[in-house]
Write a structure and sequence with these properties.
Layout (H helix, E strand, L loop, with lengths): L6 E3 L7 E3 L5 E6 L7 E9 L10 E3 L6 E5 L10 E10 L4 E10 L23 H9 L2
Parallel strand pairs: 2-8
Antiparallel strand pairs: 1-3, 3-6, 4-7, 5-6, 7-8
């Protein structure tokens, strides 16, 4: 049996950048608990060096089957804020990991990139589309 760390952000399981409002509660949910014995949620990247990582609150049954965090208030600088959330699930034999990007859009209407991002925001193109959109505005 193979563990799955697939999880939803605001009820969407699509590997994409998830746009959420400043000050909103962001909800996460594991899609299959089959074979899972341990669940670990963490914020592993932010879009701005001065932005503190958010606190993730586990919930559900078993604890951690769902989780949530609260987006910070709008700092008013137009830069947007984004975060990378990591889910690690395991049992005595194996483990699985998944990442998702979520955040408030910047002045250009784009959820910003986060440090360490690879294919977390898009399953095939990662940060490439966002970077190209930014280049188009220059």
């Amino acid at each position: 049996m193979s563990l799955s760390a697939t999880f939803s952000v605001e009820a969407s399981t699509t590997v994409q950048r998830h746009s959420v409002a400043y000050g909103s509660t962001v909800d996460f949910a594991i899609q299959s608990l089959t074979g899972i014995e341990t669940i670990e949620w963490s914020i592993v990247g932010t879009s701005k060096s001065t932005q503190a990582a958010l606190v993730i609150t586990p919930a559900g049954s078993p604890s951690g089957a769902t989780a949530s965090c609260v987006m910070p208030a709008d700092p008013g600088d137009g830069l947007g804020r984004a975060f990378a959330v990591k889910l690690r699930v395991s049992n005595q034999i194996e483990s699985a990991v998944a990442y998702r990007i979520f955040g408030a859009v910047n002045a250009a209407g784009i959820v910003p990139l986060v440090v360490g991002e690879e294919l977390w925001g898009n399953a095939t193109h990662g940060w490439t589309d966002i970077f190209n959109q930014a280049l188009n505005t220059i």
